[in-house]
Amino acid sequence: NQIGRSAAFWTYFHPQLVRHLPAFSMTNPQDLVRASTRVAPSLIRTDADEVTYNLHIAIRFELEVGLIEGEISVGELPELWSSTYQRYLGVEPANDAEGVLQDVHWSAGMFGYFPSYLLGNLYASQLMNALERDISDLWDRVRQGELSPILRWLNEHVHRHGAALKPEELIEKATGSPPSAEPFIAYLNQRYK
Known about the structure:
- By secondary structure, the protein is mainly alpha-helical.
- The protein has helices at about 5-20, 30-35, 55-70, 75-90, 115-135, 140-145, 150-155, 165-175, 180-190.
- The longest helix has 20 residues, at about 115-135.
- It is globular.
- The two termini are about 15 Å apart.
């Protein structure tokens, strides 16, 4: 998200996009940055922007906990979904397809899965900070379409460990700090304030 939504990324990749999809010749790199960083509350998690996406996860997790602890019945979910979306995001689904039935996770028995998406966003910010620290000319390289240093860094610090480390151990080993929400909050403030 952080690299692919950046001006540096689209400076290099916009001409390639236009070459493959000529309809984009009416745009410029900044148009794509603006489009990819637009913030607006939405009903559908997979369409959410990077600022509000984690609120979608929080809603699902809050409702999951209520279901598992027996405080919420399945029959109450549609109304609770709608009211929670209204409270957190200021939007309300017109029907259950836009609301409680939009994801397959629960029907597939995948409870407790949603927080992993949120953790991924938090971890990505910490990894991005470490990338910027360790590759001093990172954004110049991205601007030139030279992404191999990023992959090499990820292979060395993340991928090579596979499942040998717990996520929190991996993040601390790769970044030098235990997992924290602070880098993600700082990133959002820097990009969107």
